[in-house]
Amino acid sequence: MSVLTPLLLLRGLTGSARRLPVPRAQIHSKPPREQLGTMDVVIGLTSCFVCFLLPSGWVLSHLETYKKRE
């Protein structure tokens, strides 16, 4: 068995995958009608923090109470 045998084997396994066409999505968008203001960004980030990070932080901070079996 020569040194090139594993390379030829890999080339044979991956050769057919290279020939398959990959469909690409045609995504086009227009520029926004209105630019987001600073206050809009602040409200969005604050609401994401309150909705996602605050409850998970509360659960993680009270994890020891959930572990206790009463």
TrEMBL record:
CDD domains named in the record: Cyt_c_Oxidase_VIII (cd00930)
Stretches that traverse the bilayer: 41-60
Keyword Metal-binding on entry: no
Bilayer topology annotation: Single-pass membrane protein
UniProtKB keywords: Membrane, Mitochondrion, Mitochondrion inner membrane, Transit peptide, Transmembrane, Transmembrane helix, Ubl conjugation
Protein localization: Mitochondrion inner membrane
InterPro entries given in the database record: Cyt_c_oxidase_su8 (IPR003205), Cyt_c_oxidase_su8_sf (IPR036548)
Top-rank taxon: Eukaryota
GO CC, any one term: mitochondrial inner membrane
Pathway(s) this gene product operates in, as recorded in its UniProt entry: Energy metabolism; oxidative phosphorylation
Gene Ontology biological process terms, A to Z: mitochondrial electron transport, cytochrome c to oxygen
Xref: Pfam families: COX8 (PF02285)
Family: Belongs to the cytochrome c oxidase VIII family.
Function: Component of the cytochrome c oxidase, the last enzyme in the mitochondrial electron transport chain which drives oxidative phosphorylation. The respiratory chain contains 3 multisubunit complexes succinate dehydrogenase (complex II, CII), ubiquinol-cytochrome c oxidoreductase (cytochrome b-c1 complex, complex III, CIII) and cytochrome c oxidase (complex IV, CIV), that cooperate to transfer electrons derived from NADH and succinate to molecular oxygen, creating an electrochemical gradient over the inner membrane that drives transmembrane transport and the ATP synthase.
Subunit structure comment from the entry: Component of the cytochrome c oxidase (complex IV, CIV), a multisubunit enzyme composed of 14 subunits. The complex is composed of a catalytic core of 3 subunits MT-CO1, MT-CO2 and MT-CO3, encoded in the mitochondrial DNA, and 11 supernumerary subunits COX4I, COX5A, COX5B, COX6A, COX6B, COX6C, COX7A, COX7B, COX7C, COX8 and NDUFA4, which are encoded in the nuclear genome.
Protein name per Swiss-Prot or TrEMBL: Cytochrome c oxidase subunit 8
